[in-house]
Structures are given as C-alpha cells and as structure tokens.
Amino acid sequence: MDIATLKQILQIAFEKRVSDIHFEVDNPPIFRARGHLIRSKLNKLAKKDTEFIAATVMEQHKRKLPEQLMELDTSYALPDVGRFRVTVFRQRGNIGIVMRVIPHHIGTFEELNLPPVLGDITKAPNGLILVCGPTGNGKSTTMASMIRHINDNFNYNIITIEDPIEFIFPSNKSCIIQREVGLDTENFTGALKAAMRMDPDVIMVGELRDLETIDACIKAAETGHLVLSTLHTHNAASTINRIAGYFPTQAQENIRHRLAEILVATASLRLVRGKSENVLPAMEVMYATSTIKACIRDGHLDEIEQHIEKGRDEYHMQTLDQHLIELCRQELITHDEARRISRSSDLERKLMYS
C-alpha cells in the first residue's frame, strides 16, 4: 500500500457513494454500499498495509500511532475529495481501520427524506433535542441537517463539540465554532464548561457518552441554551430510561423531573432498504407536549408511544410504525422490510388496515 493507492480507494468510495470502507489484514478493502458489504477485487491487505493507513491518518494530525493502541477515533481529510470519520483498532494483534465517508454536502430535510417537523423543533429557543438510533443509522447526518437548518434561518452563535469533527459547517446566518476533542480540547466536559463562556445560543455535542457529559448538557439546557446531541437508543422511552440510568438510583426521579422541564423533542431513526435499492430513514418523532412531560415526570414511560400516535395531526409527531406504514403506502418499501424494522407485535394488524 502506498499513498497513491490509498487516495484512489478513498476517491472510489466517494464516487460510488459508499458509506464505509473496511481495512483489515488478510482481507481486501471492503466497502459498505446501500447497507451491503462488497469485497473489492484488490489484493488482500498485509500487516504493513493497515499500519501504513493508520500512520497516514495520524500523520495528518501531527501525531504518531500509539504503541499500545487498543482503539481510537479520529478523522481524515483528502484534499479536493472529502472527509472521513476514522476508527483505528487492534484485532488479533493487527491494526484495523474503518473509515466512514462524510459527504461534502449537508443535506436539507427534503433531500434526506426527513420529516419537516424537525425544522419546527429547531425553532425552540432553549432546551434539549436528542437524535437517537443504533450505530450507522444516520444520527450524525440528521443532526447535521438540523444544524444546517438553524444556520440557514437564525442569527445564532453555534458551538459544536465533536470527537471527531465530521461535517464542516460554513457560517451562514449563524456564526459556527467547531471544536474537536483531542485536538482543540481535552474532553467533552471541559469543552462544555468552556462553551458556556463563549456566548453560545446553540451547543451541539456529538454524543452523550458518560454521566459528566449528560449532566453538563442538562445544565446548559437549563440555563437557557438550545442543546443538540445523539444517543444510542431505539425510541423516546428508552432514551429517558438510558439518561436516568446514568445517575444514582436516588437521583433518578429528580433527573426525570429535570428532563421533563427541558426536553424539546427526540427523533429516533432507523435506515430502511427502499424498493429501488436506496436507503431511507424511518423515524419516530416525539415532541415533548405537556402530557408527555407528565409521563416523564411520573415515570409512566410505557404510555409515551400512545401519546405520540395520538399527537400526529396536532403536533406532527409519529411513531416508528406510523412512518413505516406511510412508507409502505407510498410503495417506497416492502411490507417485509417494515416487519424487519418494527419492534411492535401489532404491526401486522396495522398494515392490514392501512
């Protein structure tokens, strides 16, 4: 492997619109496209090849590959081509790399097939907005689209704290400051404390990873800022449970009360395979109405989904099943794909009467 070959592989990834590239010893480079893994026809990679790729990535940040590396997250930019989010890890003693392709263009809600209600959600002057879902299902892309919408429509000071920085936001109506953990700041908690002294209107935190970050985000929302972040949860109820679960048992009731006061909305998404071999987002959208806030305060989280379902017309909320059924009606996905994604035992009945 040399730099010319690596650049060629990365250029192909952009041209073919793949989402990820895998570099592992004893395998050729592997691409993920439209949800499927595709083995390239290139030669199998040797130990020296993956070490070269990892070292090349680190060199861009003027750092060397740690001798005792277990795993690390970073980024890589290829001039005139694009950016990648990079995970370097060790497996069976060898170095492996997965590179996530970050598109040049930050899509609008319409371009990404996201519900327009996300634009209404971003109008909130303060509070907490969470984008949720499993790894690789479009959380970062969705949140980037929301930041773009804010940037295009509001005169705000936006501070992003990421590990690593993914999308690059040029300032438009808003002023945007982007800080990378490990490069511009030591950690999320310290960066959040510093952000409070940087005249922020909006703070975007790449991911809620630990108790300290969650607590700092809640405090930022409580003090009048709009905070956006992501969480690896499946729906609104599991999101509330996950956040409360980070805190000691005796503090969890208080946290639910605090969340009820500041939570603006949750958007939980899964990527589904369309009939045209494309990929579409299927999304639950919960807007924190007074009824849902009461459910959060009282711990009646199992009632949230029914309130989302009932609030579709008035608040433009939707459950995952409602969106899957709508995609089936529009003949964008198959019933089998809807069944594969849904976590509900009641979907079959709903599909029959849709």
Report the sheet with the most strands, covering strand number, pairing sense and barrel closure: 7 strands, mixed
Distance between the termini: 54 Å
**Radius of gyration of CA atoms, rounded to a whole number:** 21 Å
The average pLDDT score comes to 93
Number of helices: 14
Q: Give the full name of the CATH homologous superfamily of the largest domain.
A: P-loop containing nucleotide triphosphate hydrolases
H/E element sequence: HEEEHEEEHEHEEHEHEHHEEHHHHHH
Shape verdict: globular
Specify the CATH class of the largest domain.
Alpha Beta
Provide the fold topology.
Layout: H1 3-15, E1 20-23, E2 30-33, E3 36-39, H2 47-60, E4 71-78, E5 82-91, E6 94-102, H3 117-121, E7 127-132, H4 139-153, E8 157-162, E9 175-180, H5 188-195, E10 202-205, H6 211-222, E11 226-231, H7 236-245, H8 252-262, E12 263-273, E13 279-287, H9 290-298, H10 304-310, H11 312-315, H12 320-329, H13 335-341, H14 347-352
Parallel strand pairs: 7-11, 7-12, 8-9, 8-10, 10-11
Antiparallel strand pairs: 1-2, 1-6, 2-3, 4-5, 5-6, 12-13
Helix pairs in contact: 5-6, 7-8, 8-9
